[in-house]
Amino acid sequence: MARVPPLTNSAATSAEVHQSNKGIAFGAGAYVIWGMFPAFWPLLAPAASTEILAHRVAWSLAFMLLVTAVLGRWAGLRRLSRRGWLMVAAASALIAVNWGVYIYAVNTGHVVEAALGYFINPLVSVLLGVLVLRERLRGLQYAALAIAVAAVVVLAVDYGRLPWISLVLACSFGVYGLIKKTVPLDATSSLTAESMVLGPVAVGYLVWLGGAGTFHDHGLGHAALLVSTGLVTAVPLMLFGAGARRVPLTTMGMLQYLAPVLQFAWGVFVVHEPMPASRWFGFAMVWAALALFTADAVRSRRRTRLLAPIE
Predict the structure, then answer these.
(1) Average of per-residue pLDDT across 49-71
(2) What's the distance, CA 225 to chain centroid?
């Protein structure tokens, strides 16, 4: 049998570039799907937000059990400790709150406020790192957080109340991400575990809802859309997992802004939610904070590369 010659440096580099391009495509695909969610959830009317959430969880469970069986990922779930399952339960509760509030926001005309939550989420994650993990902030991070807090004040004055939808979405997803760091599961197994925790509650709620639900009484198309919530939930997560394995976290961090940008554009230009000048100013402050945050992340990564020892 002929020996396969080792890859040359140029071939290895070409393979790395190919994998990186695939990773960017996977990551962008995930965030574009998430960004288009405001177009999807209203299609499920007249189902209420709680019913949609229950179907999303129940059908996610069915879909993820199938995926886990096909991929043979049961071993990781069986090895998960009691503490691990407790962390999964906590993460499940947080993601249920996040999903429920987001569906409510989109279906009640608060798409822009929901987009704000995902714009400020990276800054909330940094703040949680300081408060919980005792991480130290760099100068630009301090500036970004200060501008973000001022932006929330400006937007609170504009709305006449705290932008609670934004804050609940950002904080629930931020704490969810923090907890997920402690769970030794890949993205697919993790969603399966969360669905296994939430699934019985969701199915129980749908059984209790019975004739008051919309699954049986609004035609096959409506029922099919409710079933598709499991697929719509799982596909972008699996794309995200595939992308995260192929590109640096900094790259994924910059791609994440695709979702709120698309959500914001949908809210402003498609469903025409009101955007007075004061609200534009508040959002501009948030975007300025994110620009500082991203610039700091890129600079920090470059510095790490320069200081890394040459092998």
Answers:
(1) 94
(2) 21
